Amino acid sequence: MQAHAQRHARHIALPDFGVAGQARVSQARVLLIGLGGLGCPAAQYLAAAGVGTLILNDFDRVDASNLARQVLYTPADIGALKVDAAAARLAAMNPEVRLTCLDERLDGVGLAEAVARCDLVLDGSDNLATRLAVNAACVAAGTPLITAAVIRLEGQLLVCPNDGSDAPCYQCLYDEHDESLGDCRGAGVLGPVAGILGTLMASEALLWLAAVPRSATGGLLLVDARSASFRRLQSRRNPHCAVCGPDAPTRGNFHPEFRD
Ligand SMILES: [Zn+2]
Questions:
Q1: Which CATH number fits domain 3-233: 2.60.40.10, 3.10.129.10, 3.40.50.720, 1.10.10.10?
Q2: Ligand 1 centroid to 250 CA: how many Å?
Q3: Is the overall model pTM greater than 0.90, yes or no?
């Protein structure tokens, strides 16, 4: 068996994944925003699964306080750019993955271009303003988005297909003034909770890329580590949403799932 097929044998063996699903994964371009507690495990599983191109975006450097949950980094990486430390680790895990590093704060035209050039965006950034900006760029480009957040013992995840369907975008659920999602710097976060949400992001990404048929997945998924429970809220699109509503200036050209 070829090394490539051997590496991915357990995914290829999945009935709804197969050779075709792996081929789609191997050709995909995925933009990962934020290489913190969510982005590290997400990137690990996406690299291990052989995603064709991973574009890594983070402008931050590794700090000692990151090491309890940002599992790509070691003490030797303290002070290094996260994109560089992560890329080195991911390249060692799977040399077949093409890695691109963006060590800048993505916004405006740069964010719009980065989002438009990929098949899927994973947002594991650590603040609401960034998540809203990434959401708006994904809606405008018609690029699917998987966005997640963690704080204390809790996490949440939303998949936004951005395909013209009735699924809500992130802005349908939150706006700039929403402070229910604080900053884990002050509030703290349990490392494995970020791991749960980060691996869930990777799972959603692989199922999406491989076009595996799904049962109902819409709505906001809430994870509570204190009770070890998952709950899904039925979330509707906001017809007056400033980003995806009919009058939104940025609402864009919904595109087919993949582009080259
Ligand atoms: Zn919306």
A1: 3.40.50.720
A2: 11
A3: yes
